[in-house]
Each structure stands twice: as structure tokens, then as C-alpha cells.
Amino acid sequence: MMHPDSRLEPVATLSTAFIGGIVATAGLAAIGGTRHVDVDLAAYVGLAAVLGLGARWWAAPTAAFILWLFYDGFLVGRHGDLVWHGAMDGWRLGFIGAGALGGLLMGRVTRFAVAVRHR
Q: Least buried of 14, 75, 87, 101, by fewest C-beta within 10 Å?
């Protein structure tokens, strides 16, 4: 069961986002992810949601931005080049951010429910 104060420190959240971005990028690229960027996007949204579950309020969107940098630079750009591809990159960043904020909301609601139950 989740403790009401079981949130990651911001440094742990951001470090996990960085390492998770490296691992996700390497894994997705190894299975041909550069050809299926929509599937890759779904994987990054899921990773952002998992990170958001235990994150502090400001660390979740920052972690989402870190994940987007890996996604854009290595899966969309394929060569580590960060290039803004117009409105589509805005949507991609928004989807990853929404995943992180959704995870953050789910974590907050879960911790609130546990705190109420323990009273």
C-alpha cells in the first residue's frame, strides 16, 4: 500500500527520467522504433505517466520535457539532432506532458485516498 508521503525527491525523478529516456530510446531503436514514431510516442507517454505517479508537482512536467528531448532527438530526428518540426512536435510534447500530469494526478488521488483511509 502506498504511504501518503511516498513521493520521489525531484532529483530522483529527473534522474530516472534521464536514465529511462536512454533505456527507452535504446530499446525502441533496437526493435526498429525509428520507423514507428507513434508507437514510440505511446511508450514515452506511458513512461512519463509512471514517473508522474511518484513525482512532485514541478518535477513531472520537467521529466516529460527530458523524455521529449530523447524522443525528438533520437527517434524522430534519428541522429541526436533537436529540430522543431512545427505543430506536430507541439502535439508530441503535449502528449508526453499529459501523460506525466495524468500520472501525477493519479498519484495524488491515491495518496489522498490512503491518507483518508488511515484516519
A: 87
